[in-house]
Every structure is written in structure tokens, then in C-alpha cells.
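Morning. Coffee machine broken again, so started the prediction first thing and wrote up yesterday's gels while waiting. Chain of 451 residues, entered below exactly as on the submission form.
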Amino acid sequence: MPPELDLTRVSSPLPGEILSVSALARSVRDLLEHRYPLLWVAGEISNCVRAKSGHLYFSLKDESAQVRCVMFRNRGQYLDWEPREGLRVEVRALVTLYEARGDFQLNVEAMRRAGQGALFEAFVKLRDKLDKEGLFDAAHKTPLPRYPRRIGVVTSPQAAALRDVLTTLARRNPSVPVIVYPAQVQGEAAAQQLTAAITAAAKRNECDVLILCRGGGSIEDLWAFNDEGLARAIHACPIPVVTGIGHETDFTIAEFVADRRAATPTAAAELAAPARADLLAELRRLRQSLQRQMQFALDTRAQRVDTLAGRLQSPADRLAASAARLDAACVRLSAALALCTRNAQWRLAQAAHRLAAAMPNLDALRHKIAQLDTALRRAASRRLTARAEEIARLSLGLDHLNPAAVLERGYAIARKPDGSVVRTSAGLRPGDPLELTFARGATTVRVEKPL
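Came back before lunch.
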């Protein structure tokens, strides 16, 4: 059953509202797209036309009805088969309305031949089961060896994929031997043979990497690679496994379990075997790098040897040189000591002479100091008396000039906002703010009309 319609997500016309055709078509389209999500529809193709743009237009019908369908080029390019008239198919589509013509249609996202639904459901069921068990986890993936010494190929000896793989390996690195583990890649016994080949390769342990490959085909042709036993054998294989099964759009269970997946058998061979030219280039680069490092190390060691050789002396020569330096140091020390002694004696004699000449008469100095102290005290007393009288006189004069005294008589000082005192009304304008200072406190006024 389709999900219930969420009416809050679809706008409905108001009672009595008149809609345009485009508004009605848009409303119906929204209703359809919200009512029916992506779903699978089965039917028979008719009126199938592929436009120059690459889009595919057709009708899907059964015994009682038909519906127009479109599959745009970006979706149809992944089909590995060509839809044609009368073919029964199953499409995964979005139910919508083509507003330009008012046509009810299906926008097809994917298409498969009818009858593959059961296989696909089995594929999805097994995929989900193995995924829950952790067989697809990246932690279980083994990195491919960079320089494999031997490569194994699991496929049919008659398969074209084997020729592609061998040709690619011979072109990229002919020195690496290849071991083929034969197995059927299609049919009822294919899954068992592929599983046995993987198990045998793991037991023999003679390869560094395994390539599991097959050419393209339908889901039935590739069904052997969706076997659970094969998937578990790949997961248990200690040798890294690279898959190259079908085309780029084909996916199988074996590819999910494998350590690396390639789009084609040729691409799998390119992943497994490093190109010989690349290896030779890497080898040349490493050789040049090693030569440069060796030459640098040799030059550094040679320079160090030269330095040490220049510093190398015999013990007798070193003792003689040290003794000569010690004798010279003793002579210089004796001469310096004698010079310092003479200089110190001369400075001491000079200081004694100056001290004797500068010795004062202490009694006369004490009498002079007493006289000066008495005179200083008398002069200080007279000066303090005179300054007190002058301060009293100036204080009396300041009381007469103190603005606060004027303010006490009811006057006020007017200042502009910048702090300047207003002395005349000539520069005042109506609305100018003024600050009035009184004897106690201040206030702000505005000029109404200068006089």
C-alpha cells in the first residue's frame, strides 16, 4: 500500500479560488510526487523512441492500461542492453505530471528485464546478510603487494577475459609469472568450481595476489559470483583478491568481499601488476638518489678527515708547545706583578702627601660653625616674622578678590559647554546651553533671547 498523503506538504486551493492551468498542473504534480515515492512498475514496452538528445521515451502497458514513461540520458547510459518494442520490463520510477502537456507519466530511474526481480531480491538479501556479518568491512581488506613475485588468475581457460588479463600482464610486467586456476564462470557448477579454485590457491600459497575475472553479461550470466560459499572463500583467503567481473556498472557479491574491485578484467590486471616501465623508472630514481647520498657522505667524511689531520700532533710536540706557552706566561706574570707593585706604592705616597696638606684646623672650624649657627637662627626668625606679616596682608587682599565672595552676594558665573566664561551676550544664540555656577551648586540653562 502506498504511504498516506501528508496534507501539510501539499498546498490546496482556497474555496472560490480560480487557478491558472499551470498552477493546477503544478498542484497535481506535487500531489502525485508526494503521494507516490519511487516504486517498481512492471509492464510491456511500446512506442519506444530514443531522441537525438539521448533521452528514451516509451509507454509501459499491460492488458488494461498504459502510462507514458521517460528515461533521461544520464540514467539510460548505465543500461548494458537496448530497450525495444514488446519487451517486458520492470522500471523503478517516480510518478509525476509533465506540466507542459498535462500528461501523467513516469520518470524512470532504473530499468531491468522482467523476471530478474527474484534474482535481484536474492542478491540484496545475501548482500545485507554478509554486510551485517562484517564481510564487507574495510578493516578486513588486505592491501595489494607493491611488487608481486607471482600472480594467480581464477577464471575459465576459454574466457576472453583471460586473454585480456594475460595480454595486460605481459605488457605491463612480463617478468612476473602467472598461474591460472581454471574454473567455470557460468552455469550451475560455476560457483562450486570458483570456490574450489580460490580455496586451492589459498592452500598452495604460491601467489602474492589473485585475480578473479569474467567478461560482461546479464545478471543470470554473472550469478555464480553472487554465491555465498564463494564470498566466504574470498573472505577467508589470506592472499589479496582483485576482482574484474563484467562491466563497470555490474556489481556482484564477490566484488563487495574482495580486497580490491576493478571495473573490468583488464583494469584488474593493471591493479595487480605494476608496470615494468614504472618499476625501472623508480629503480633509476632510487639509484640516483643513493649515488647522491653516498657521494655526499663520502665528501663529508673526507672533509672531516682533512680537518682532523690538520689538528693531529705528536704528544712530544704538544708537550713542548705547552711548556713554551707556560714559560712565556710566567715571564709576563712576573713583569705585570712588579709593575702593579710600583704603581701601588707611588699612588700611596701621593695620597699620604695630599692628606697631610689637606688636614684642617678643627678648633677654628668649630668656633666658626658656632658663630654661623647663631647668625642663621637670628636671620631665620626675622625672615619668618616678615613672611607672616606679608601673608596676612595678601590674604586680606584675596578675600576682596575671591569670586566666591561675589557669588555669595547673589551673582553667578555663566560658562559655555567648552568651559569658557561668557562675558558678553553678543556671541549667544537662542537655544545655546549655558552652565551657571552659584555660590553653592550649579545648573544648566538654555538661551531664549540674547539681549
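Residues 1-10 have pLDDT under 50 and may be disordered. Going to sketch it on the whiteboard this afternoon.
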